[in-house]
Design a protein that fits this description.
single chain, alpha+beta, five-stranded mixed β-sheet
Length: 154
């Protein structure tokens, strides 16, 4: 069945069966591979995208459930003030090690800073909980969120 998606500010018509995870439509049909498959059960955060500005796990978000919502992937994050600040902080602090989880980490960090522009360490830890990093760069991720907050405040 053909479904229209509002993805990164553009309408895309895709052919997908009901029950297809949004992740696979983004990656396989639209060839946007920044959103990663990690676990398939919404536990690791590698597949995080924004639906109407809220971070969601795209591996467990079904194509028919997004309707006309605005979907944003990592590919469009640098086009937003908060996304650009987070990416700048990640580069400045050399947050990334292997990089596999980082698109999901960035999407969650943008969600946090959208809700709370000046998060405490506890706020960061609580919000980012559930975003797994195989390389355990959690201290650098936390520092990156704090630095992005500083960039936004300037």
């Amino acid at each position: 069945m053909t479904i229209s998606l509002n993805l990164n500010g553009k309408t895309h018509d895709v052919d997908a069966e009901p029950g297809t995870p949004l992740l696979w439509v983004i990656r396989d049909e639209l060839k946007m591979t920044g959103t990663k498959f990690g676990c398939g059960v919404a536990s690791c955060g590698a597949c995080t995208v924004h639906v109407d500005g809220e971070p969601v796990r795209s591996c467990q978000t079904y194509i028919e459930d997004v309707g006309e919502s605005e979907i944003t992937t990592i590919e469009a994050m640098s086009d937003t003030e908060i996304g650009a600040a987070v990416q700048q902080a990640w580069v400045e602090l050399d947050v990334v090690q292997c990089g596999y989880c980082q698109s999901g980490q960035i999407m969650s960090a943008v969600g946090l800073l959208t809700e709370n522009p000046k998060p405490s360490v506890e706020d960061i830890d609580n919000y980012m909980y559930g975003n797994a990093c195989r390389c355990a760069t959690y201290q650098r991720i936390r520092a990156g969120v704090q630095r992005a907050s500083e960039i936004l405040e300037a």
